[in-house]
Amino acid sequence: MIEAIWQKYDDDGNGTLDFQETLKFVRDIIDENITAEAFQDVFEEFDTDNSGTIDKDEIAVFISKIEHMFHESPGKSTVVEHKAPNKNNEGL
Ligand SMILES: [Ca+2]
Ligand SMILES: [Ca+2]
Questions:
Q1: Cα of 4 to ligand 1 centre, how many Å?
Q2: What are the pLDDT digits (tens) for 19-62?
């Protein structure tokens, strides 16, 4: 997954995502209307070594937190939304 992100968003191919590249990624997957100002704080939070770029270790943390934001289930990984018994084998 991370490799795919890099291929898509590391525009200059230098192996890290700079602010603009990361912003593009975030706009695509989280919030297309997020402002650069609003994202600045997020970027700095995840740029844990303060290099000014996001490397693959940093994006891994980022993604895990994003996923947590999206699936706000408290800790349980077993998500069974469709409890209805599959009576007639239709629908899949
Ligand atoms: Ca780059
Ligand atoms: Ca960094």
A1: 14
A2: 999 999 999 988 899 999 999 999 999 999 999 999 999 999 98
Cα separation, 36 vs 43, whole angstroms: 10
Q: Which residues contact 62 (CB under 8 A, 6 or more apart)?
A: 46, 54
Please give the model's pTM, rounded to 2 decimal places: 0.71
64-71 mean pLDDT: 75
Ligand of minimum distance to the alpha carbon of 17? 1
Distance 7 CA to ligand 1 centre (A): 10
Mean confidence (pLDDT) of the chain: 84
Instruction: Identify which ligand lies nearest to the alpha carbon of 21.
Output: 1
Domains and CATH numbers, the chain: 2-70 (1.10.238.10)
Taking each helix axis as running N to C, give the angle between helix 19-29 and helix 2-9, from 0 to 180 degrees, rounded to the nearest 10.
120
Which residues, in sequence order, are CB contacts of 92 under 8 Å at separation 6+?
A: 86
